[in-house]
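Progress against Task 2.4 (sequence-to-structure conversion) is shown through the following example record, which the project officer requested during the mid-term review.
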Amino acid sequence: MPVQVDNRLSGAAAIDHLTPSSSSSSRRLVKGNEALALGAIAGGVECFFGYPITPQNEVPELLSDLMPRLGRVFLQAESEVASINMVYGAAAAGHRAVTSSSSPGISLMMEGLSYIAGARLPCVVINVMRGGPGLGNIAPSQADYFQACKGGGHGDYRCIVLAPWNVQEMFEFPRRAFEIAERHRMPVMILADAVLGSMLEPATVPDDFPPAVHRPADWACTGRGARSHKNVVNSLFLSADELERHNQLLQRTYLDARAEIRFDTRFTDDAELVIVAFGAAARVALSAIRQLRAAGQRVGLFRPQTLYPFPVEALRQATAGAKRIVVFELNAGQMVEDVRLTINGAKPVEFFGRMGGVIPSPEEVAEFVTRQLAGDSLPKRAMPARTEEACHG
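Structure tokens generated for the chain above:
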């Protein structure tokens, strides 16, 4: 039976009342982590495997209730390593599988994720980031950009990476992620941060969810059936020539994945300076831009929704008329490297960042941008000395 969400409530309390399906949607207050869980269900997830870790625990909490009611699989594994390998098995059998975790837990999954990428299996991995490195803290951070976009595990592999910036996108991106993952047969990671996971804001979500529909894949390991051959899924290639051919196939897949590039621009048509930011940082940047616009400054925002593949051509077009670019991240400077490669020295690219879960105010960002527009040097308090040396040396 379909499960209906009581639209007078939000979160786990919203599923206390089950009624027949009405196939409708409504706008209501939803928490970011709960939106991820509801989005996975709306996207047809058949299996969830995971292990608790803050600040994403509302994802498995909600799925642990909803998934069994919908006749789907929820399994709390004994560890993150087990979780990602269960995703491997379910994906190899052609099922839509998802896991969710946070930074240190994602680190433990990297070996399995490399295997999944090597086996060309579609799946979705949700990372609600926390501060790091190491255990870090549970405050908002964007310090996993390198890990998500540059591989993370071993070997020449990539994951498509999507970065939501509000609760509505936290709901919509899981469904989009499943579609993209299956189109290219590769993992898709949703990269959010703690403030987005904990944020409560209006979003339009379905009032009910129908039972999952299994979509058989012709490459999946489902037994011989009526076929004359067996499907084999693995990432084991002992011959150098075989492995090279397989890696060439993977690289072609990553080129094809550029068709999935998505981005958002605000006020860039006449912008003298463009701020590039993703996730929660982009929301702070937009508030700063509105303040600067009110003061007569021509400043715009470029927000990659797809962090990998990076929107190279779109960024070049959006900044064609700008004199300089500021990259704002909640880390020591990671995406700024992709921006600098994109701009390739054609104009100055400066970095502004905070770490450890510190979120600067829009006024602080606006002050930094104002200094850039005036051609001043970077204020020392806005960036630790190590970061300044790394990014401007």
